[in-house]
């Protein structure tokens, strides 16, 4: 059993936009927050200029955030937030030093080769560490600015929630408890794929009705897939599911929505994904989600459509015609 206190030492692993924004919000009231970055220039900028121009420009960071290139420095931390892209979680967990820290997973995706959710990857690599998932409608730039944000903190038990929620809750950052770790993860992973679909709707000029229809029917797909993996519908109806789906399906601030918008305008996924140092998780989650859903006998026609568009196998007009001409079924299916 870990003992976390108000001055517990927090470590954030991953200094992209989200890791940096979490470091900013969670460093309030702390002596020091340690941020691991894999880019030497990010470490230098955070420590010397108190900013991260590569991933979260135009934000001044607290002076008590210290960046390091050496992941071994995380050994003495009581709580570790893992904020790497989903496909790199396994390698980063494997390089962490021996630690009893509570691990809070903040990335949104499904591992490509294994079809495992992030908590399942963590259980394989770090079976003895207490585990939680932090997920919800949280654009990094808004959190870094201190704008009000509510999200889900799913913990493997209530005792862990009692220990870590005082470190996460701030005046503008409000976590809600859930004991449904899988549900919290599935919401975040699936909404990224649906956000690509909503971007396509925008880019192809298909209208607001189509966008709302996609959100509604996409949510039905999320519920069906969630049920097949043991997630609770009530979790998916909350901040980490529907809440995040609505956010990322409505704004070009979302990298997934922007990727979809480019596809809808006729650009290829290859072009849109080349030469970028930021991650659009939905592009990596989509094919693995499709494979996993098929193996479980779960119908996800919107996810299938996004996969076909990402692979360059079709165009928005054909996809719409295919979706609109499916056999008529009950809305409850
Ligand atoms: N940006 C946001 O508003 C939010 C992002 N997230 C999630 O947080 C996770 C991280 O995303 P961002 O911080 O936005 O990243 P980002 O897109 O801002 O930056 C890319 C990150 O990937 C890291 N990276 C690249 N190659 C790597 C490797 N081989 N090993 C380890 N790390 C590597 C970079 O160092 C950098 O930290 C994603 O799963 C994302 O879905 C969750 C909530 C909000
Ligand atoms: O997950 C996010 C907001 O909750 C960020 O969305 P994007 O990765 O699409 O930018």
UniProtKB/TrEMBL annotation:
<dbReference type="GO" id="GO:0006650">
    <property type="term" value="P:glycerophospholipid metabolic process"/>
</dbReference>
<feature type="binding site">
    <location>
        <position position="108"/>
    </location>
    <ligand>
        <name>sn-glycerol 3-phosphate</name>
    </ligand>
</feature>
<feature type="binding site">
    <location>
        <begin position="14"/>
        <end position="19"/>
    </location>
    <ligand>
        <name>NAD(+)</name>
    </ligand>
</feature>
<feature type="binding site">
    <location>
        <position position="38"/>
    </location>
    <ligand>
        <name>NADPH</name>
    </ligand>
</feature>
<feature type="binding site">
    <location>
        <position position="108"/>
    </location>
    <ligand>
        <name>NADPH</name>
    </ligand>
</feature>
<dbReference type="GO" id="GO:0008654">
    <property type="term" value="P:phospholipid biosynthetic process"/>
</dbReference>
<feature type="binding site">
    <location>
        <position position="140"/>
    </location>
    <ligand>
        <name>NAD(+)</name>
    </ligand>
</feature>
<dbReference type="GO" id="GO:0046167">
    <property type="term" value="P:glycerol-3-phosphate biosynthetic process"/>
</dbReference>
<keyword id="KW-0594">Phospholipid biosynthesis</keyword>
<keyword id="KW-0443">Lipid metabolism</keyword>
<comment type="pathway">
    <text>Membrane lipid metabolism; glycerophospholipid metabolism.</text>
</comment>
<dbReference type="InterPro" id="IPR006109">
    <property type="entry name" value="G3P_DH_NAD-dep_C"/>
</dbReference>
<feature type="binding site">
    <location>
        <position position="255"/>
    </location>
    <ligand>
        <name>NADPH</name>
    </ligand>
</feature>
<feature type="binding site">
    <location>
        <position position="191"/>
    </location>
    <ligand>
        <name>sn-glycerol 3-phosphate</name>
    </ligand>
</feature>
<feature type="binding site">
    <location>
        <position position="136"/>
    </location>
    <ligand>
        <name>sn-glycerol 3-phosphate</name>
    </ligand>
</feature>
<feature type="binding site">
    <location>
        <position position="108"/>
    </location>
    <ligand>
        <name>substrate</name>
    </ligand>
</feature>
<feature type="binding site">
    <location>
        <position position="281"/>
    </location>
    <ligand>
        <name>NADPH</name>
    </ligand>
</feature>
<keyword id="KW-1208">Phospholipid metabolism</keyword>
<dbReference type="InterPro" id="IPR006168">
    <property type="entry name" value="G3P_DH_NAD-dep"/>
</dbReference>
<feature type="active site" description="Proton acceptor">
    <location>
        <position position="191"/>
    </location>
</feature>
<feature type="binding site">
    <location>
        <begin position="255"/>
        <end position="256"/>
    </location>
    <ligand>
        <name>substrate</name>
    </ligand>
</feature>
<feature type="binding site">
    <location>
        <position position="140"/>
    </location>
    <ligand>
        <name>NADPH</name>
    </ligand>
</feature>
<dbReference type="InterPro" id="IPR008927">
    <property type="entry name" value="6-PGluconate_DH-like_C_sf"/>
</dbReference>
<feature type="binding site">
    <location>
        <position position="255"/>
    </location>
    <ligand>
        <name>NAD(+)</name>
    </ligand>
</feature>
<feature type="binding site">
    <location>
        <position position="138"/>
    </location>
    <ligand>
        <name>sn-glycerol 3-phosphate</name>
    </ligand>
</feature>
<dbReference type="InterPro" id="IPR036291">
    <property type="entry name" value="NAD(P)-bd_dom_sf"/>
</dbReference>
<dbReference type="GO" id="GO:0046168">
    <property type="term" value="P:glycerol-3-phosphate catabolic process"/>
</dbReference>
<feature type="domain" description="Glycerol-3-phosphate dehydrogenase NAD-dependent N-terminal">
    <location>
        <begin position="10"/>
        <end position="159"/>
    </location>
</feature>
<dbReference type="Pfam" id="PF01210">
    <property type="entry name" value="NAD_Gly3P_dh_N"/>
</dbReference>
<keyword id="KW-0520">NAD</keyword>
<feature type="binding site">
    <location>
        <position position="255"/>
    </location>
    <ligand>
        <name>sn-glycerol 3-phosphate</name>
    </ligand>
</feature>
<comment type="similarity">
    <text>Belongs to the NAD-dependent glycerol-3-phosphate dehydrogenase family.</text>
</comment>
<feature type="binding site">
    <location>
        <position position="254"/>
    </location>
    <ligand>
        <name>sn-glycerol 3-phosphate</name>
    </ligand>
</feature>
<keyword id="KW-0521">NADP</keyword>
<dbReference type="InterPro" id="IPR013328">
    <property type="entry name" value="6PGD_dom2"/>
</dbReference>
<protein>
    <recommendedName>
        <fullName>Glycerol-3-phosphate dehydrogenase [NAD(P)+]</fullName>
        <ecNumber>1.1.1.94</ecNumber>
    </recommendedName>
</protein>
<dbReference type="GO" id="GO:0051287">
    <property type="term" value="F:NAD binding"/>
</dbReference>
<dbReference type="GO" id="GO:0005975">
    <property type="term" value="P:carbohydrate metabolic process"/>
</dbReference>
<comment type="function">
    <text>Catalyzes the reduction of the glycolytic intermediate dihydroxyacetone phosphate (DHAP) to sn-glycerol 3-phosphate (G3P), the key precursor for phospholipid synthesis.</text>
</comment>
<keyword id="KW-0963">Cytoplasm</keyword>
<feature type="domain" description="Glycerol-3-phosphate dehydrogenase NAD-dependent C-terminal">
    <location>
        <begin position="180"/>
        <end position="320"/>
    </location>
</feature>
<dbReference type="GO" id="GO:0005829">
    <property type="term" value="C:cytosol"/>
</dbReference>
């Amino acid at each position: 059993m870990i003992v976390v206190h108000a001055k517990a030492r927090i470590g954030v692993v991953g200094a992209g936009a989200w890791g940096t924004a979490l470091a900013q919000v969670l460093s309030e009231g702390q002596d020091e927050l340690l941020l691991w970055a894999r880019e030497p220039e990010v470490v230098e900028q955070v420590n010397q200029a108190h900013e991260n121009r590569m991933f979260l420009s135009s934000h001044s960071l607290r002076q008590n955030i210290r960046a390091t290139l050496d992941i071994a420095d995380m050994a003495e931390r009581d709580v570790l937030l893992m904020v790497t892209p989903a496909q790199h979680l396994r390698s980063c967990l494997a390089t962490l030093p021996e630690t009893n820290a509570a691990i809070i997973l903040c990335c949104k995706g499904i591992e490509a080769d294994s079809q495992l959710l992030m908590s399942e990857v963590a259980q394989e690599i770090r079976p003895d560490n207490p585990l939680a998932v932090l997920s919800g409608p949280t654009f990094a730039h808004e959190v870094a600015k201190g704008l009000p944000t509510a999200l889900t903190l799913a913990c493997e038990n209530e005792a862990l929630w009692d220990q870590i929620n005082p470190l996460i809750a701030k005046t503008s950052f409000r976590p809600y408890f859930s004991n449904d770790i899988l549900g919290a993860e599935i919401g975040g992973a699936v909404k990224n794929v649906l956000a690509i679909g909503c971007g396509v709707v925008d880019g192809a000029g298909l209208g607001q009705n189509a966008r709302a229809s996609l959100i509604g029917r996409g949510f039905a797909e999320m519920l069906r897939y969630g049920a097949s993996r043991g997630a609770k519908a009530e979790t998916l109806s909350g901040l980490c599911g529907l809440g995040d789906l609505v956010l990322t399906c409505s704004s070009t601030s979302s990298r997934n929505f922007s990727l979809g918008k480019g596809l809808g305008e006729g650009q290829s996924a290859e072009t849109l994904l080349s030469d970028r140092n930021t991650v659009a998780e939905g592009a990596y989650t989509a094919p693995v989600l499709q494979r996993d859903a098929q193996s479980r006998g779960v119908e996800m026609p919107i996810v299938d459509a996004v996969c076909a568009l990402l692979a360059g196998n079709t165009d928005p007009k054909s996809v719409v015609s295919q979706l609109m001409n499916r056999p008529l079924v009950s809305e409850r299916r």
